[in-house]
Design a protein that fits this description.
single chain, 176 residues, mainly alpha, two-stranded antiparallel ribbon
C-alpha cells in the first residue's frame, strides 16, 4: 500500500513504489538481479496465498533454476491465458502447451518479467528461501490452499494423484 495525495503525479507514485521495492530487494542476490527477484517473487505470489509456505516454494523454484530445470510454474501459464482470454480459470492439461513467452513449461529459464507486483513477503521469500532439496510441489488434498512438497518426480506424481482424487470427490459432492 502506498499513501499519496490525490493530486500526486504518476511519477511521484511510481517513485514511491520503486523506493519501497528497493528497500526490500536492494541489489538482488549473488545470482539474481532485482528484476529476476521480482519475477520469481511474482510467481511465488500467484502460487500461494499461504504466506508461511512461500519460502519453501521460492526454494523449489530457485533449486530448479540452479540445476537448469524448467520452472514449470502454473502461474506463468495462467498469465498467458489471462492475457489471451481475459480471465483466470482452472488449468487443463492442454493449457501447458500454450505458445506464450511466459509459459515456463515451454521455455527455459525465467519468463521475460514479473507477472504481477509481488508483495514484500514474496520478495523476502526469494531473497531468503527455505533451504530445501525439494524440486516439486502440488496442491494439498486437504484442498485448503496449502501445498505438499517432494524431492522426486515419482513422489510428486503420487501426491498429485491424491490431490486429483480429492478434487474429483469434492466436485462430485458439490455438483451432486
Amino acid at each position: 500500500t502506498y499513501f499519496a495525495f490525490w493530486l500526486s503525479s504518476p511519477q511521484t507514485i511510481i517513485r514511491k513504489a520503486y523506493d519501497a521495492f528497493k528497500d526490500v530487494v536492494g541489489d538482488g542476490t549473488e545470482t539474481l538481479s532485482p528484476i529476476e527477484v521480482a519475477t520469481v517473487a511474482s510467481i511465488v505470489e500467484w502460487e500461494s496465498q499461504h504466506k508461511p509456505e512461500r519460502g519453501h516454494i521460492a526454494g523449489v523454484y530457485l533449486n530448479r533454476l540452479r540445476i537448469g530445470m524448467r520452472l514449470q510454474a502454473d502461474p506463468t501459464v495462467q498469465y498467458g491465458l489471462l492475457e489471451r482470454e481475459g480471465n483466470r480459470r482452472r488449468l487443463l492439461f492442454v493449457d501447458y502447451e500454450l505458445d506464450h513467452p511466459y509459459n515456463t513449461y515451454r521455455i527455459d529459464g525465467m519468463p521475460p518479467g514479473p507477472l504481477t507486483n509481488p508483495s514484500p513477503s514474496s520478495l523476502r521469500s526469494v531473497l531468503n528461501p527455505d533451504d530445501t532439496d525439494d524440486l516439486y510441489f502440488v496442491a494439498s488434498p486437504a484442498l485448503d490452499g496449502t501445498h505438499e512438497f517432494s524431492r522426486t518426480l515419482s513422489e510428486h506424481n503420487a501426491k498429485a494423484e491424491r490431490y486429483r482424487t480429492a478434487l474429483r470427490a469434492y466436485l462430485a459432492r458439490r455438483d451432486g
